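Study this protein:
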Amino acid sequence: MELTSTKPVVERIQGLSIAGHLDGYDGDIAAGIHLGPAFRSQGGIDGTLDAIDIQGIFRGNGKIAIVMIFPYLIDQTRRFAKVTLSGSVHGHEIAAAMEAMYQDPDWAAKFDILWDASEITELLLDASDFLGFVRVQKKYAAVGPRREIIVARRNLDRAMARTYALFMKAGAHRVYVCQSEEEANELLKQ
């Protein structure tokens, strides 16, 4: 699907200092969630920052906010949104993308969402992230999607997407997991 407008998804992550977070530890998330160890050893911040646009913002309380951006497109005519995830992706970033999209003035209830996760190089999730996704979906149930379609090429990413689909099974919408964009486009035609 060709979409015409792009809006950034913005989330702020706060830490007491940049130097304290160069080891990849994200325990001081502004939302107050402590992320335990991910499914792999967390490496340095260099690889994490390569794939995303980052800005440091100094605040009066001495904390630094880092702004991370995932692009998303909303096509109101087709009642469709596409979120592009790439590089190193954390669960709290996905939850922030969900919230930003549901708050976007171009979003409307029962749109389809295509999560393009085909360019993820590492997916950093723990069990609490899935519960966080469910909380976001419950919070925005009145404006939630008709369905979510996740495109993931790597086996691990598809396994995590299927886990999310299981968590959402009792929810108001269905989650589909695809290996290719062609498969996702066939679902979107239905």
